[in-house]
Write a structure and sequence with these properties.
The protein is α+β, with helices and mostly antiparallel strands and about 400 residues long. It contains 9 helices and 19 strands. The strands form 6 sheets. Strands 2, 3, 4, 5, 14 and 15 form a 6-stranded antiparallel β-sheet that branches. A 5-stranded antiparallel β-sheet has the order 1-19-16-6-7. Helix 2 packs antiparallel against helix 5 and helix 8 crosses helix 9. It is globular and about 70 Å long. The N terminus is likely disordered. It holds the Pfam family PP2C. One of its GO terms (molecular function) is [pyruvate dehydrogenase (acetyl-transferring)]-phosphatase activity. This is Protein phosphatase 1M.
Length: about 400
């Protein structure tokens, strides 16, 4: 895979970070410590994976830098902890292989637990551990800030994409576009956030209301019946407005302007352990989940073509380009540059430049006269064809 991490050149510094590497998972019997040199020579003692990740920092680049240096190590560690189960077609109840109860194998079968589930669990645990490390590092250096995290792992014939934040990954295939992540924003996670406030109202310190209203309520709304939603509601109802409802909403604003506690535009990410709502003692972190949603693509179930690629990008790209526009660019560019050995790198550059736009007077505009991205823009273009050969 080839990354292109390019600042849009409209801000003083770039808060985006990227990482990619090969991950070697040691395969050994529990409790046995083998000779290191022998393990290196005997490649059969390793399972190999390939890793790419993008981190979009906020409040400074520090959390993104720590995550780019550490998340892959956490993933390697968590995979090695369960490698005995991953190597089996159906993971055993006990990693040692023992069967304490006769129902143990039946439980695994009834729950449909497979090696894939262990990899997903390892990724979730790795994000959790990385978040803890970032918290410790930031506290020790008296720094604040956080980052979103989007990671892809190719392992044992499957592609795992783990996302915590508003970056996005899509597969651009010959005849289709497959979303491999979903954005986590205060709006998309409204019910989870409201439910947490319902369970632990002290987290709001009397400064916020958990209810969602179509707009910020005013004094004249008191006593009126207005539209509202609570944590258990997908639909809308009417509520008689009380004075307490005039407090600032837990989730306020719409689209890219939506904010969690009036502070953050994302609802999942790493870091932000020291972040407080301005002029209050309210911690944002309890509402900010570090656990990713993991989607899996099994190559054995698909006929992958030569120009099929994985696109990973921070929100600087997706703010101005939709999946369809990106897919059209990908297919057109690769069809016109079949003989270029650097075509995937060049495609990544083209995507960044397209979202960055061109300067017209005092504004940056796209070719179709829409406003260009003013955010940092980072893109991976990762070819999927002939994976084992490469």
């Amino acid at each position: 895979g080839t990354p292109r991490v390019i600042n849009a050149e409209k801000s003083e510094f770039n808060e985006d970070q990227a990482a990619c590497c090969q991950i070697s998972i040691r395969r050994r019997e529990p409790g046995l410590e083998e000779d290191e040199e022998w393990l290196i020579l005997c490649s059969m003692q390793f399972l190999t994976g390939y890793y790419w990740a993008l981190f979009d920092g906020h409040g400074g680049p520090e959390a993104a830098i720590i995550a780019s240096n550490y998340l892959h190590y956490c993933i390697k560690q968590k995979l090695e902890e369960v490698v005995g189960g991953i190597a089996e077609a159906r993971p055993p109840m006990h990693l040692s292989g023992r069967c304490v109860c006769d129902s143990d194998p039946q439980f695994v079968e009834e729950k449909h637990i497979h090696a894939e589930d262990l990899v997903v669990g390892a990724l979730e645990n790795a994000f959790q551990e990385c978040d803890e490390v970032i918290g410790q590092e930031m506290e020790a250096t008296n720094q604040t800030g956080g980052c979103t995290a989007l990671a892809a792992l190719y392992f044992q014939g499957k592609l795992y994409v783990a996302n915590a934040g508003d970056s996005r990954a899509i597969l651009v295939l010959k005849d289709s576009v497959v979303p491999m992540s979903c954005e986590f924003t205060p709006q998309t996670e409204r019910q989870r956030i409201q439910h947490l406030a319902f369970l632990f109202p002290k987290l709001l310190d009397g400064e916020f209301t958990r209810f969602e209203f179509p707009r910020r309520l005013k004094g004249d709304d008191v006593g009126q019946k207005v539209l509202y939603r609570d944590y258990f509601m997908e639909g809308w109802g009417y509520k008689t407005v009380e004075k307490a409802d005039l407090k600032y909403p837990l989730v306020h604003g719409h689209g890219k302007q939506a904010r969690l506690l009036g502070t953050l535009a994302v609802s999942r990410g790493l870091g932000d352990h020291q972040l407080k709502v301005i002029d209050t003692n309210i911690d944002v972190k309890p509402f900010l989940s570090c656990i990713p949603k993991v989607n899996v693509f099994d190559f054995a179930l698909h006929d992958v073509k030569e120009d099929d690629v994985l696109i990973m990008a921070t929100d600087g790209l997706w703010d101005v380009l939709c999946n369809g526009e990106v897919a059209h660019m990908v297919r057109s560019f690769l069809a016109e540059n079949r003989t270029d050995p650097h075509r995937f790198s060049e495609l990544a550059k083209c995507l960044v430049c397209r979202a960055r736009g061109k300067k017209r007077g005092h504004q940056w505009m796209l070719d179709d006269s829409r406003e260009a991205s003013y955010d940092d823009i980072s893109v991976f273009v990762i070819p999927l064809h002939k994976r084992e050969k490469d």
